[in-house]
Amino acid sequence: MKSHLFYSSTYQQIEESIKAFLQSQAGQLTPYTSSPRAMGDSLQELLAQSFQEVLGEVCQEYSSAFSRRAMADIAFKDNNDLYYVVDVKTHRKEEGFHMPNLTSVERLARFYEDDNNYFVILAISYTIQHHQVVVEQVHFLPIEFLSWKCLTIGALGWGQIQIANFDHLVIVEQNSRRKWMLELCERLFTFYPKEIEKINSRINHFEKVYALWQAKPE
Q1: Which of 12, 20, 179, 203 is paired with 29 by a 20 to 30 Å CA distance?
Q2: Model-level pTM?
């Protein structure tokens, strides 16, 4: 079932509400401006405490009690019993590439076996100006609205979907989940053989190391 949050302008209104809320709380964040990690944790905690109110009537059930290894930082159900897990990603805009992990390809594939599930990215970009936090941009969207032009797959476990560069998100509004998932599979069909080549190369290397040490005296 298609979400009325994301296949209408509702999610854009939520983005604006999140941005306004965070900017109104900027004073509370001042002690954490020197550390992006501390800032990220503080932004996430602020959102966890107030996100249900930001969502308003669209939110029927809400939870923010998740471990660091969980898929979600925040989760909720809407009026149509659709389930959303929200992964909060924060980014201080500065020089350099920022490639946050989003989720495991295998975990996402299992989660999306149920069409009522949505894996949502809440991406917050901010700057520090005169020791004050300025929220520059907020994106609140399902992962399938992120184009594969701005995503990559990292070699961890089954493979980790990553944002290639947080400063250059490419968004495809109302994108088809079917199309996006098919492209994920196609990319994995290319990714996995390359990983096999790497592993075979490492095996060959250590076969030589093994032979070298076999030839040494005790």
Answers
A1: 12
A2: 0.89
